[in-house]
Description:
By secondary structure, this protein is of the alpha+beta class. 19% of the residues lie in helices and 30% in strands. The radius of gyration is 27 Å and the shape is globular. This is Eukaryotic aspartyl protease.
Amino acid sequence: MAEDGTHRHRFLLFLLSLLALSTSSAVSRHLPPRSTRSATTATLDVSATLAQALRALSFDPVSSHHPLSHNLSSSAISLPLHSRDFLPSSDGHRHPDYKALTLARLRRDAARVRSIAARAALAVGGVAASDLKPIAEEKALPIAAADSIEGPVVSGTSLGSGEYFSRVGVGRPAKPLYMVLDTGSDVSWIQCAPCADCYQQTDPVFDPSASSSYAPLSCDSSQCRSLDISACRNSSSYSSSSIPAAASGSGGSDGSCLYQVSYGDGSYTVGDFATETVTLGGSDPVSGVAIGCGHDNEGLFVGAAGLLALGGGPLSFPSQISARSFSYCLVDRDSPASSTLDFSAASAPSPSVPAPAVTAPLLRNRRLETFYYVGVTGISVGGEMLSIPPSAFAVDESGAGGVIVDSGTAVTRLQEEAYSALRDAFRAGTASLPSASGVSLFDTCYDLSSRTSVEVPTVGFHFPGGRELRLPAKNYLIPVDGAGTYCLAFAPTSAPLSIIGNVQQQGTRVSFDLEKASVGFSPNKC
């Protein structure tokens, strides 16, 4: 009897195990594990993203105002960031519809990418700035004579595509000015009176004679020698009739430094190179910052008074204040909200800046110290690594190639082989979505007018050590019109250099630890 009981007990355990196995199998067929789903697909909220895009068109640029902010920490500098399309404008210009706004953005973006690629090609080719002639005509340079300053066709990136700005105080007393913030530039500058040729800006043009801290730099100063293009203002090169007196600085003395920065889209700025006091947010004023005081500025977009350079060169703002780290978070380009740019002089990041969720190596290119290169090992779509050779992301011995993180480029550019792999994998994962015709540089688009939300393959950047930055769906499938057309926001480039653009960075705090040579990404930490 005892033996029969043992057999029955074992048989019941066997039946229970079969039942558990079949139940588990059935559940797994209908409800995939959460981790598997999140690794392969992401949800795009079509209704929310389209509604936000349409709200961007109703923004009133005339009535908007952004005062200087107040800083809460004396150990760090923090100031608000705003999307370029929410820069106050005195003329109240608006785009007729969202597609027109998109096309304008993409035109600016294309100009910027061309100039970045041209600058990289010149640097890799070993072409010195002094070997090139300026694109501007001589008649456009009345303050700095054309035979005294010879600039390169490209010595920076297209200011017309600066996509984020902030309110910055310049001078003593501080005059609040809207300035573009750009990780792809090293020379900060503002438009200055008297103007030989200034474009329209929202604020009054800065008058250096009204600032007690304005001081022209001499030609033999280290800051002047660090410029790509410079010249010396002296009596033998200039006649009194061609130089406005105030432009020479205090007393108009000989031997003061002149600068020129020329951009790949034909834009340029020319003027005096000086030191000035700069106030960011509610932080203490920073004195002795070398900036350009531009009296002749051509071809730039209407609105901002100038540019605050955040690049890696010796004249950039982070370098001049000896920042050990800085970070920014870019709000959605269609949002009037703001986030922050933070600098820290201490070895630890600002208390307001969270520790990064994903880190990657910050690399430097000996031929291009301006740009922030990041070590990328691959890209995944739908949780699967793409077959892309490592050379597509690497800087070669000549200094060509690599991947940079750029705040001013909108759409991420990948080498053609890498882009084709990403596009083909994404198309395979969205075969059920209705396709639409391409728009501008986008060749993978969808008609989502009848959808409120869709599931799309995940897209992720991969870094050494198995680290992954998985992008939100709204950072790579974006609206391009008001009718529900969405496009994959990546594009190919024939240039060796790849660029991680700001559409992919939106909503993520990007931190640059200059001391430890790392780039950090913290999603949803704005």
